[in-house]
Amino acid sequence: MRAETFESRVRQALHAGRRWHPAEIAFWCLAFAAFLLFPSQLLLLNEIAILALFALSLDLILGYAGIVSLGHAAFLGTGAYAAGLFAKHVGGDPLAGLAAGMAAAGLLGLVTSPLVLRGTDLTRLMITLGVALILYELANSLGWLTGGADGLQGVVMGPVLGLFDFDIFGRTAYLYSLCVLFTLFLVARRVVHSPFGLSLRAIRDNPLRASASGVPNARRLAAAYTIAATYAGAAGALLAQTTQFVSLDVLDFHRSADLMLVLIIGGAGYLYGGLIGAIAFKLLQDAIATFTPQYWMFWIGLFLVLFVLGGREIIHGGVKAVAGRLAGIGRGAAR
Amino acid sequence: MTHRRTVLGGMLGLALAASTSGYALAQEAVKIGLILPMTGPFASTGKQIDAAVKLFLAREGAVHGGRKLEVILKDDAGNADATRRLAQELVVNDKVAVLAGFGLTPLAMATAQIATQAKVPEIVMAAATASITEASPYIVRTSFTLPQASEPMADWAAKNGIRKVFTVVTDYGPGIDAETSFAGRFKQAGGTVESVRVPLRNPDFAPFLQRVSEAKPDALFVFVPSGVGAQFMKQFVERGLDKAGVKLIGPGDVVDDDILEGIGDVALGTITTHHYSAAHDSPANKEFVAAFQKANAGMRPNFMAVGGYDGMKLVAKALEATKGDSSGDKLIAAMKGASWESVRGPVKIDPETRDIIQNIYVRKTQKVGSELHNVEFETIKDVKDPVKARK
To answer: Cα distance from A73 to chain B (closest Cα, Å)?
Structure first.
């Protein structure tokens, strides 16, 4: 009897996370409404959506599986180059290119996952960093394939689903990126609340205990790493397709480092962390860079230092308060 | 009578229309989107061009062809996808009539598609790969091309007893251009060439210079992007190549005026071919240099500054020719064949290739008073970009 109630309480607790919170619905409604609300900012919004997807990818391994990485740009770059080369040599269909980018990055994730599973956090940092550096140099030296430092030229995209052409205003680009982000977010949401996702969290919190209760740690982590790599590949593919250009920059260290900052701002370990972080980071960067094109790096650096020192709770507290209020409104409306 | 009245009325109407449209045009500023690397490893390029653009507006006024020029500066930090996004935003949100700047070849290339789609002229003030102007019919260049500067170097070297040359270039568009055009021309003249390429980002020249010192050439031909020359020279001296009697030659980027004082005496005797030196001997240039230094706390203008200054000059001239009409096609048409007396000497925009035709000077780095300068001692007149001229 007692055991049953305990079990049902656990089940209830687990299911609670799966249910859609009104604030979540509001968040996605806003994201789609942004298309109409800010018609002149679609290019920036598109970049935010792509960065958000990229951050979601890192959150999957860092926040849920506890794998630190300083080389996540490796997957972004692989996805970008794969999608770019696909468009150039095979065909301009965006969805096929997206699949190609995801597959290439996923494969790379699968192949490199044994390296990442060894050792501690510090060695993981070094290994992921190393993999990204190797890929950067590879892309630089394989000039005949990637265009080297001049970038991959001649990427021409066809219309999405054969209907929507990429336009100079970024309309198609934003909706396309947002739809991909939303779809992959739904998948991620399902994954982290599944038994698989729960086992990842168990490994993160106590690997010894997880393996003692029968979780195959290595295989679960490898799977998580591969999924995250696929997500980063999707972000890379979106970047390549919506800008119709790939440069070495997609593999650069600053991409990985920026991504860490995004997760620090947004908070790791919950799916919206990456999304909120991406929005805050990009808006901040854009605002300061418009204000002072020469010295924006100084201001953003200063802001981040202050933020990490103590401001983080303020934003999180604020977000929670707003979410709570929205939830209250949602509940009120439901009644 | 009635006939005369209608004619008069018509004329009055025309005059009115002209004056009101002129008024409307003068009201609305012509926006120029200036995209430069203001941060990152190529920030010196951005700084020079930005300063030159400001100097142009201060010296020659902001109103041209009845329209006010308004410059919107953006920083791309030398990243091509940022350049592209900024260009797109400038065209879509700010409705710029002209895109300008472009510190590196990939940055100019990434924007070409936007220029074509939006029919907005793209004024390349710095990037120097020959093929850039072929990427879009809306690209016009006011800097130079690497083959334009490198082939005269090959001629000079062949004439002056140099037989064996080792080339060290940065591994991207302009470097490859410099290497192939120099090597091609020099081999034709009977010389031998060995080549290595150095990566663009975070270059370490030491291992490459080691190979040079083992090969013992007569001369070392070098191309590095503007601003990187100091680093190269330092390692050149550390390897003792200056004492081994290897002559340093190349297009003028390595002894860039901006950093020449910082390089110091090791640069003495370097022979370069280029389109601009701050020491260019003309009254117009002396005034320009003095005004530039006055406005920028003593910073010496380099060839990037001149590219930026002339880029603005070209936009101003085109607007004067179109009488204030800033539509992309009209501006491009007006830019083709435009010619003026630049501080570097006479220049002309080639109507066929939209690339610049200019004098190339052979210079030697020497002391002028207490300062280091690239002193011009030979002039090759009206050089076209040789790569496109051969096509």
So the answer is: 15
Interface membership of A269 toward B (CB under 8 Å): no
Which residues in chain A are contacts of B75 at CB distance < 8 A? Answer: 289, 293-294, 296
Could you write out the DSSP letters of every residue in B206-263? HHHHHHHHHH--SEEEEE--TT-HHHHHHHHHHTTTTTTTPEEEEEGGGG-HHHHHHH
Tell me the pLDDT of chain A (335 aa) as tens digits.
455 688 888 777 777 777 888 888 999 999 998 898 888 888 889 999 999 999 999 999 998 888 888 889 999 999 999 999 999 888 888 999 999 999 999 999 999 998 888 778 888 888 999 999 999 988 888 878 887 777 787 788 888 887 788 877 788 889 999 999 999 999 999 999 888 988 898 888 888 888 888 888 889 999 999 999 999 999 999 999 988 888 888 888 888 988 988 888 888 888 898 999 999 988 988 888 877 777 777 888 888 788 777 666 666 666 667 667 666 665 544 44
**Chain B partners of A243 at a C-beta cutoff of 8 Å?**
81, 84-85, 110
**Residue of chain A nearest B173, judged by CA positions:** A150
- Helix, strand, coil shares of chain A as percentages rounded to 5? 80, 0, 20
ipTM value: 0.71
Contacts of B106 in chain A (CB under 8 A): 149-151, 247
Domain boundaries, chain B: 23-144+282-354, 147-274+360-390
Count Cα neighbours of A301 within 13 Å in the Cβ-side half-sphere: 4
Tell me whether B196 touches chain A (CB under 8 Å): no
CA-only gyration radius of chain A, Å: 20
> In chain A, what residues touch B80 (CB-CB under 8 Å)?
151, 245, 247, 249
Q: Answer yes or no: do A249 and B109 touch at CB < 8 A.
A: no
Question: End-to-end alpha-carbon separation of chain A, Å?
Answer: 34
In the block, residue with structure tokens 């935010």: A48
Tokens standing for residue B73: 């500066």
How far B72 CA lies from chain A's nearest CA (Å)?
10
Domain covering B23-144+282-354 in this structure, CATH number: 3.40.50.2300
Interface membership of A148 toward B (CB under 8 Å): yes
Out of 3.40.50.300, 3.40.50.2300, 3.90.10.10, 3.40.50.720, the CATH code matching B147-274+360-390 is 3.40.50.2300
Burial class (CB in 10 A: 0-12, 13-18, 19+), A168: middle
Return the CATH number of A22-334, one of 1.10.150, 1.10.3470, 2.40.50, 2.60.40.
1.10.3470
Fold match flag (B23-144+282-354 vs B147-274+360-390): yes
pTM for this one? 0.80
Nearest residue in A to B75, CA atom: A293
The 8-class DSSP code of residue A249 comes to: G
d(CA A298, CA B172): 29
Q: What angle do CA A106, A108, A113 make, to 5 degrees?
A: 95
